[in-house]
Amino acid sequence: MTDSSLTSTVFVFVHGAWHSSAQWAETQRVLAGLGAAGVAVDLPGHGFDAPLPTGYLLPGQPGLLTEKSQLAAVTMDDCAETIVDTLRRVRRYRTVVLVAHSAGGGPASLAAERAPELVDRIVYVSAFVPGGRPRFFDYLGSPENAAALGQGLNLGDAEALGVVRINPLSTDPDYVEELRQAHYHDTPLDRFDRWRSLLSPDLPLAIPATPVTLTAAKWGRIPRTFLRCAHDQGLPPAVQDLMIAEADEAFDGNPFTVRTLPASHSPFAAHPRELAAALVA
């Protein structure tokens, strides 16, 4: 994009599991310096207003493994509608680019399917693409994902809790290291603790478990880019490539533009400048 085109462009950011709009702040600042606007969405159940398990901040975290989440009733529709509402608000810009990270790819894809006229391009940053398989769980359970780190982070029974629950405030050094390796292994150690303290513990189960159906006439007509994270240990490149290939096969009239970042699963933490440069490229 040229500088003049950037001034009429807005990037709408959708975070991944357990994150929030705050994860995009540094990337947004870089984009602002280039002349582009950025708006970050908090999906239902995320952000500073996210309800926490009652014992989460107490000594010993009582009930963390068994207490049903207040977010159990959050649906994929709720999440998609939150994104569509934001897209409607920013449509005054000439170019709207929808950017999704990780599990945020499901709600973002459904939002684009429902309102393709509001999206000029959709960018997946190591994110779930339901073009080939409708549920994120379908890819997380694939052989290509067998070596992924972070699978030991989940707590309790997700069906009973209504969420996929982790413990960002864990004091177990092995647990904390698995979290770091899965999501932030290229983030400086002194910054990693700040990043994990911003995470919320509950991801509504509907986000990875609900099927998302896409059509060629709607989602399939939107130009799309996939930013591969080459050093991702939480969603390995083999799974990213599988999602790209299956979506391109299912929607062969409009294949992905693919770019690669030398980054972990969370480039917004360690490489915001490189991420911003890739977004405007």
TrEMBL record:
GO MF, one term, reads:
hydrolase activity
Q: Where does the UniProt annotation place the signal sequence?
A: none
What Pfam families does the record tag this protein with?
A: Abhydrolase_6
Record domain AB hydrolase-1: where: 11-278
Q: Does the keyword Hydrolase apply?
A: yes
Q: Keywords in UniProt for this one? A: Hydrolase
Record's keyword annotation contains Hydrolase: yes
Gene3D superfamilies attached to this UniProt entry: alpha/beta hydrolase
Name the UniProt record assigns to this protein: Alpha/beta fold hydrolase
